[in-house]
């Protein structure tokens, strides 16, 4: 005991030396101690991290745990409810397994069956890790020492995820600017701790310039939270795509896609599936380096020994058809599908398939990629019972839809968006595609122009500012009194965001695909003359990007089909109607998804639903939509013989109901406010 105390004091004073002492004292020199900020390569798989491999339901539970933890104040009741829902709602889940795993886990810790593990966690506690972490996930922190929260100075809140808040901070020891991802746990729930531990463990196994680097972990003794320390990244791809007036050139798109594929290749070759590739998880630093981030849903997998995995992963718009149809045996192809969506999104300037529910999402996929062939289930490992075929036969129209993109991009997108997973190829085969060999070639990341920080989070801030403005207007001051030019850029962007949001809300009685594409021949797309596109310039901003030296603007390259046209989005629609705003920011992924995703709010993964929590604008809509929560949930998407068109109409009606009620609620609240 005395020895242990002395060691503890030592460890606190000089942590690095302290841990070495502990280890030599305990004669456990199995790994080299590098200190908190540099340890790499904890190769052995954490039993916890791979437990999904044993049961598909555990990860679903974990995903729910992530969601529940994200509510922070929701407490364990939310978590319990989510876990329960998981078991009740999901057809792909085996009812008892989630429970069993949790129990088995508790038994393992408390019964002391695994003496070595227990010893390891004891060591970690002595080294300064909190017991709740050391006990639950000893391997995640193995070889590292915790940093103290007061060795960082928080500068700004820069992001918010389902279960985390991200801050920009200064490391007071080195002066370096970092990102601190604060993860709070609900009652130290082992399931959510373990979920986060999996993320840490996976991040520590990866080491690549295009994968975000976890630099350390900070524990806070006061709050029940952990901070993950990451290198700081100024932008994310979703934010860039949503930046008003910003149009990526072909070399820039190639540069980003190439980096994404290199990062993915590294993950896949190291047996890691990301399972949540989307723009807001692709971070970009001030040198144009793209890094894959948010490994919260990532999983270790062994292609030679496939295990059942949950199908409840990947954000809806980027989710491949086999997952929507409940496949539990899958591999790298799920990330390749998401990559295909991203590549097309970069050229289109907006997400390409924006389903509001899983049913609608699969329908959009079939409309674009064609109806599945008879042997689809077998080839894609989709359970026959979960399969449905749209009543109407759709022919594949990927090439036709994206014909305005450069031909080599179309070929790549066509292959990545194959219905059959096998046909999508791998990250390394995609890197060999003509897309990267055809002129104009990818530019160098370092030559990308410097941009002000742009994240999906900024888009959300704009929305919040918009709400504030609207409220102020109702209070008599009027949003119009804020003149662009009198405010800083952030506010100007917010004002424009307000207009867009308003417009979006007012016109949301129709889905975007209906709005933009009444003839519905090509899902969600309409090609517009460049004249309209050109009107969308941000004073002093878009021009910076477009005038960068040395870049090919493909509007000037003859034969580049994509140069002369642009896919329509809400902004251009508004401009076409003569909106007084010279540029209307295109809503980010979250924004478009939020107001209409009511039917998805109970998704066990909780990702689409989680975005509602982030956005108070639609929170009410979600509450009002609660009674619809059971409709058309995932699992078998259609009862045999069901009519997809009726179902979609029904969906639309429910969603519109929810949105209408949501719109009414704040007005009523404001009336009450004014009265009181
Ligand atoms: N290293 C970083 N540098 C700068 N910003 C970051 C960094 N890591 C994350 N962020 C910002 O914080 C946001 C949330 O982070 P992250 O995606 O890791 O959290 P999450 O809780 O898993 O989110 P989600 O629910 O979207 O999956 C990101 O979208 C990004 O904008």
List keywords for this structure.
676 residues; alpha+beta; six-stranded mixed sheet; three-stranded antiparallel sheet; 28 helices; 44% helix; globular; binds adenosine-5'-triphosphate; RNA polymerase II CTD heptapeptide repeat kinase activity
Can you describe this structure?
The chain is α+β, with helices and mostly antiparallel strands and 676 residues long. It has 28 helices and 13 strands. The strands form 4 sheets. The chain has a 6-stranded mixed β-sheet with strand order 1-5-6-4-3-2. Strands 7-9-10 form a 3-stranded antiparallel β-sheet. A hairpin with a 5-residue loop joins strand 3 (164-171) and strand 4. Helix 3 runs antiparallel to helix 4 (75-89), helix 3 (56-70) crosses helix 9 and helix 13 runs antiparallel to helix 17 (407-416). It is globular and about 65 Å long. Mean pLDDT is 63; it is low at 1-115 and 476-642. Adenosine-5'-triphosphate binds next to strand 2, strand 3, strand 4, strand 6 and helix 19. The site of adenosine-5'-triphosphate has 25 residues, from strand 2, strand 3, strand 4, strand 6 and helix 19. One of its GO terms (cellular component) is nucleus. Belongs to the protein kinase superfamily. CMGC Ser/Thr protein kinase family. CDC2/CDKX subfamily. InterPro entries: CDK, Kinase-like_dom_sf, Prot_kinase_dom, Protein_kinase_ATP_BS, Ser/Thr_kinase_AS.
In short:
The protein is an alpha+beta fold and 676 residues long. Helix content is 44%, strand content 9%.
């Amino acid at each position: 005991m005395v020895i242990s105390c002395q060691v503890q004091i030592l460890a606190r004073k000089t942590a690095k030396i302290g841990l070495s002492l502990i280890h030599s004292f305990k004669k456990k020199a199995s790994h080299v101690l590098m200190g908190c900020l540099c340890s790499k390569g904890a190769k052995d798989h954490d039993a916890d991290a791979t437990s999904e491999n044993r049961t598909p339901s555990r990860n679903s539970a974990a995903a729910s745990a992530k969601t529940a933890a994200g509510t922070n104040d929701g407490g364990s009741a939310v978590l319990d409810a989510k876990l329960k829902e998981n078991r009740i709602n999901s057809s792909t889940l085996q009812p008892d397994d989630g429970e069993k795993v949790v129990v088995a886990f508790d038994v393992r810790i408390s019964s002391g069956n695994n003496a070595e593990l227990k010893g390891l966690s004891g060591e970690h506690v002595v080294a300064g890790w909190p017991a709740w972490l050391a006990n639950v996930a000893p391997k995640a922190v193995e070889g590292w020492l915790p940093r103290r929260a007061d060795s960082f100075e928080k500068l700004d809140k820069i992001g918010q995820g389902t279960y985390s808040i991200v801050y920009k901070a200064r490391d007071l020891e080195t002066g370096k600017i970092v990102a601190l991802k604060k993860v709070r746990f609900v009652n130290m729930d082992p399931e959510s701790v373990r979920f986060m531990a999996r993320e840490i463990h996976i991040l520590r196994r990866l080491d690549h310039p295009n994968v975000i680097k976890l630099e350390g972990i900070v524990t806070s003794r006061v709050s029940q939270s952990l901070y993950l320390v990451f290198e700081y990244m100024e932008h994310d791809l979703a934010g860039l795509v949503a930046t008003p007036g910003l149009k990526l050139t072909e070399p820039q798109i190639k540069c980003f896609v190439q980096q994404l594929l290199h990062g993915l290749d590294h993950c896949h070759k190291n047996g890691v599936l990301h399972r949540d590739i989307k723009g807001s998880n692709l971070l970009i630093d001030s040198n144009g380096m793209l890094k894959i981030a948010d490994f919260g849903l990532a999983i270790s997998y062994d292609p030679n020994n496939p295990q059942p995995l949950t199908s409840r992963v990947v954000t809806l718009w980027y989710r491949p058809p086999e997952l929507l149809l409940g496949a539990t045996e899958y591999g790298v192809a799920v990330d390749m599908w998401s990559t295909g969506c991203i590549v097309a999104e970069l050229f289109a300037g907006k997400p390409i398939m924006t389903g509001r529910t899983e049913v609608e999402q699969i329908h959009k996929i079939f409309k674009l990629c064609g109806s599945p062939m008879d042997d689809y289930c077998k080839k894609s490992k989709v359970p026959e019972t979960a399969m449905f075929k749209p009543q109407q036969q759709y022919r594949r129209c990927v090439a036709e839809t994206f014909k305005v993109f450069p031909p080599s991009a179309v070929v790549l997108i066509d292959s990545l968006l194959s219905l059959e997973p096998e046909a999508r190829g791998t990250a390394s085969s995609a890197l060999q595609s003509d897309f990267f060999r055809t002129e104009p070639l990818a530019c160098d990341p370092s030559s990308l122009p410097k941009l002000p920080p742009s994240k999906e989070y900024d888009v959300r801030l704009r929305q919040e500012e918009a709400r504030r403005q609207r409220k102020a207007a109702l209070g008599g001051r009027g949003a119009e009194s804020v003149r662009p030019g009198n405010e800083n850029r952030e506010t100007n962007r917010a004002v424009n965001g307000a207009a867009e949001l308003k417009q979006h809300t007012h016109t949301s009685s129709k889905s975007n695909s209906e709005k933009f594409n009444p003839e519905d021949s090509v899902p969600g797309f309409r090609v517009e003359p460049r004249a309209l596109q050109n009107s969308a310039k941000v004073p002093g901003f878009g021009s910076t990007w477009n005038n960068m030296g040395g870049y090919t603007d493909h509007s000037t390259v003859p034969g580049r089909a994509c140069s002369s046209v642009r896919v329509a989005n809400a902004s251009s629609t508004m401009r076409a109607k003569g909106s007084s705003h010279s540029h209307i920011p295109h809503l980010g992924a979250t924004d478009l998804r939020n107001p209409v995703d009511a039917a998805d709010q109970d998704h066990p993964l909780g990702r689409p639903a989680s975005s509602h929590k982030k956005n108070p604008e639609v929170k009410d809509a979600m509450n009002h939509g609660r009674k619809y929560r059971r409709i058309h949930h995932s699992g078998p998407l259609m009862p045999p013989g069901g009519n997809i068109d009726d179902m979609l109409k029904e969906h639309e009606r429910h969603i519109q109901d929810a949105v209408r009620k949501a719109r009414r609620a704040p007005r009523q609240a404001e009336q009450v406010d004014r009265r009181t």
